Amino acid sequence: MNNFIIGQITPDLLTHVRWGTYILFGALSFLGAAFIYFFFPETKGLSLEEMDILFGSVGAAAADTERMREIAREIGLDDVVKGGSVSAPGMNEPKVLDEKLGTQTREHGSESE
């Protein structure tokens, strides 16, 4: 809505106020930046839980985290996370260099030492 209003009044301001339009917009930008700097807390480096406390909604991030863990358990992602990763059969077999062809192949049925 603000951009619409700016778009509507800017031609009239440029016609009647001329160079003062730029000073007006510059001053408003400066005041907006000063307002943010002095009245909004710094959140750099804070965790979601710390931001909850800072903004007064204690427990929202913790509830989201618990819900995500519950969903992961329901769809079986806990096994993937605990096991490391899921790979195709044979992907964990050692690679063997075929010197004649200069390629790597997977050796089936061998154990790594």
Overall pLDDT, averaged?
A: 79
Overall geometry comes to elongated
Number of helices: 5
**Could you say which structural class the secondary elements and strand pairing correspond to?**
mainly alpha
Which residues sit in consecutive blocks of at least 5 with pLDDT less than 50?
A: none
Strand order of the largest sheet: 1-2
Describe the fold and architecture.
The structure is a single chain. The chain folds into 2 domains: 2-39; 48-106, no CATH class. The chain has helices at 2-16, 20-39, 48-55, 60-75, 77-83; strands spanning 95-98, 103-106. The chain has 113 residues and is mostly helical. It is elongated and about 70 Å long. It contains 5 helices and 2 strands. Strands 1-2 form a two-stranded antiparallel sheet. The mean pLDDT is 79.
Please outline the helices and strands:
Elements lengths: L1 H15 L3 H20 L8 H8 L4 H16 L1 H7 L11 E4 L4 E4 L7
Antiparallel strand pairs: 1-2
In a few lines, what is going on in this structure?
By secondary structure, the protein is mainly alpha-helical. Helix content is 58%, strand content 7%. A hairpin with a 4-residue loop joins strand 1 (95-98) and strand 2.
Output the keywords.
single chain, mainly alpha, 113 residues, two-stranded antiparallel sheet, elongated, 5 helices, 2 domains, 2 strands
